[in-house]
């Protein structure tokens, strides 16, 4: 039986009009349903959508580490890197290496933990289009049809 852990993360850039902080959202699935999800205001004010997405990816990466350990204790060790899907190409590039020093030197060092996980092949940050980003349901208002699609893809059903 395949118990591959898959994650999606997203953020809204400066979504709070009170303090201009972004909201991070993530969802993880095993097989066909969501097993973990969260939506939380980021602890810092980010300076770009890339930084907001990178902070959101780091939050999802920390959750990945914990979930992989739980699955290992339940005898469902994840042998492959856990895929985390993100819709920001620059955030993905930042997670892989430090090529954008000028644009990223202001990002707090703690948010670069994700690079260790990518380099250690515990996670793999992959691109997905916004329409396929299931975590959007936790970070931004969606049209009725897209909301229903995401809800169904997360395994949530109406009774």
List keywords for this structure.
5 helices, alpha/beta, 159 residues, single chain, five-stranded mixed beta sheet, globular, Nucleotidyltransferase, domain 5
Fraction of residues in helices?
25-40%
Molecular shape:
globular
Mean pLDDT: 86
For the largest beta-sheet, the strand count, sense and barrel status come to:
5 strands, mixed
Assembly type of the shown chains?
single chain
- How many helices does DSSP assign? 5
**Rounded Rg:** 15 Å
Total number of beta strands:
5
CATH class category label: Alpha Beta
Extract low-pLDDT stretches.
none
Based on secondary structure, the structural category is: alpha/beta
- Placed side by side, the strands forming the largest sheet appear as 3-2-1-4-5
CATH homologous superfamily caption: Ribonuclease H-like superfamily/Ribonuclease H
* Binned strand content: 15-25%
The ordered string of helix (H) and strand (E) elements is EEEHEHHHEH
CATH topology: Nucleotidyltransferase, domain 5
CATH architecture: 2-Layer Sandwich
The tally of structural domains comes to 1
Distance between the termini: 28 Å
């Amino acid at each position: 039986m395949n118990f591959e852990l898959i994650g999606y993360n997203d953020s809204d850039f400066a979504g709070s009009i009170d303090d201009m902080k972004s909201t991070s959202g993530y969802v993880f699935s095993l097989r066909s349903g969501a097993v973990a999800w969260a939506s939380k205001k980021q602890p810092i004010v980010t300076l770009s959508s890339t930084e907001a997405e990178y902070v959101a990816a780091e939050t999802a990466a920390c959750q990945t580490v914990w979930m992989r350990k739980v699955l290992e204790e339940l005898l469902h060790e994840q042998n492959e890197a856990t895929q985390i899907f993100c819709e920001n190409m620059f955030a993905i590039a930042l997670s892989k290496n430090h090529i954008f020093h000028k644009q990223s030197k202001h990002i707090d060092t703690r948010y670069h933990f994700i690079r260790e996980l990518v380099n250690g092949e515990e996670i793999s940050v992959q691109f997905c289009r916004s329409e396929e980003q299931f975590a959007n349901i936790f970070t931004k208002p969606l049209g009725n049809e897209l909301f229903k699609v995401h809800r169904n893809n997360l395994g949530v059903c109406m009774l």
